[in-house]
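Design a sequence for this backbone.
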């Protein structure tokens, strides 16, 4: 029996986020540049076999929950085959997918049959023109159609990830909440984080959880904090007083949740990261291609021992990570 994955601050880690690609089919301005972008050469991206091997080793150290992300994970051909491989790994209890859903409609059935159930679908607005403005692509109809298809197939829980930007998405908070309430989908508003590739982030553009709560209360009445939630989950959740389900906030900027962090990350090009905002990374691609499992285990433990107590977005000394969101894996 291996010792659990514990960092220097006593935080137990059982959660792994796997980025399967740094490429994306849309161009959200808070993540990607409008044109180009520096992608890793294809041979640098981990194969499904390498990802599965890494996961097997990590599961032996106590990793139980996986999230596949990117870039856009559905841009990776035959992603359902990876899901199938990961589902079969001993110890893995849960797999979720974070996607912009543009390609989900076409792949939903294969993913469902591979065993995937949990989806986080990225949707910031229901306004087609604003969607185009944010993502620089006119794909809202396909995203909405994908949500319908996924619900019809029986995926669940489905959550919506909505990045919240001051001066841009205030008017979308209530319509998105209504959309979620009508469909039994929890909306999670994500505070804008300094992870864009063009250095556009500005603290004043963060639409905070408190501001959004006020808008939601104005429309739907009282919202109660959910007390029985998993303290290690990143979202702060609330329940509509009228029985309309739940709504959540990833308040990374206004209320950081680092003290409860249980996550490690693997980038598409095989780098280990102990935090979304980490400045340093540790290569495991070389070990996956040439080393033995013991070396991979040692790398995971060593990386975790370097983990800091938390990011300091609010502090003057904060330094954004050298790679943008799409390259790290959100
Ligand atoms: N392409 C997929 C998607 O958009 O869901 C998966 C990768 S994306 C990097 C993961 C999540 O990061 C998205 O759901 C998006 O909401 C969030 N995100 C991207 N850039 C962000 C930023 N600068 N601040 C806050 N959230 C961001
Ligand atoms: Fe693509 Fe997701 Fe980044 Fe948007 S947030 S550009 S969908 S990787």
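Sequence:
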């Amino acid at each position: 029996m291996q010792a659990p994955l514990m960092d220097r601050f006593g935080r137990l880690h059982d959660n792994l986020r796997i980025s399967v690609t740094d490429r994306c089919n849309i161009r959200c301005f808070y993540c990607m540049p409008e044109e180009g972008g520096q992608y890793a050469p294809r041979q640098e991206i981990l194969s499904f076999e390498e990802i599965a091997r890494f996961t097997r080793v990590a599961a032996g150290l106590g990793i139980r929950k996986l999230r596949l992300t990117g870039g856009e994970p559905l841009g990776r051909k035959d992603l359902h085959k990876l899901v199938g491989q990961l589902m079969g790994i001993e110890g893995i209890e849960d797999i979720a997918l974070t996607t912009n859903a543009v390609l989900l409609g076409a792949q939903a059935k294969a993913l469902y049959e591979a065993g995937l159930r949990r989806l986080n679908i990225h949707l910031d607005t229901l306004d087609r023109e604003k969607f185009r403005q944010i993502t620089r692509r006119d794909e809202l109809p396909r995203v909405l159609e994908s949500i319908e298809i996924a619900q019809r197939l029986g995926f669940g829980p489905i959550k919506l990830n909505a990045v919240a930007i001051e001066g841009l998405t205030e008017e979308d908070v209530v319509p998105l909440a209504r959309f979620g309430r009508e469909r039994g989908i929890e909306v999670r508003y994500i505070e804008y984080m300094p992870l864009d590739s063009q250095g556009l982030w500005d603290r004043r553009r963060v639409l905070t959880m408190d501001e959004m709560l006020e808008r939601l209360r104005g429309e739907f009445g009282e919202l109660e904090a959910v007390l029985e939630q998993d303290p290690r989950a990143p979202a702060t959740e609330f329940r509509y007083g009228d029985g309309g389900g739940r709504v959540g906030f990833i308040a990374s900027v206004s209320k950081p949740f680092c003290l409860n962090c249980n996550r490690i990350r693997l980038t598409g090009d095989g780098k280990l990261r102990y935090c979304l905002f980490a400045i340093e990374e540790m290569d495991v691609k070389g070990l996956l291609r040439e080393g033995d499992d013991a070396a991979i285990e040692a790398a995971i433990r060593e990386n975790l021992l370097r983990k800091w107590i938390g990011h300091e977005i609010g502090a003057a000394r904060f330094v954004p990570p050298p790679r943008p969101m799409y390259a790290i894996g959100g």
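The two ends are 31 Å apart (CA to CA).
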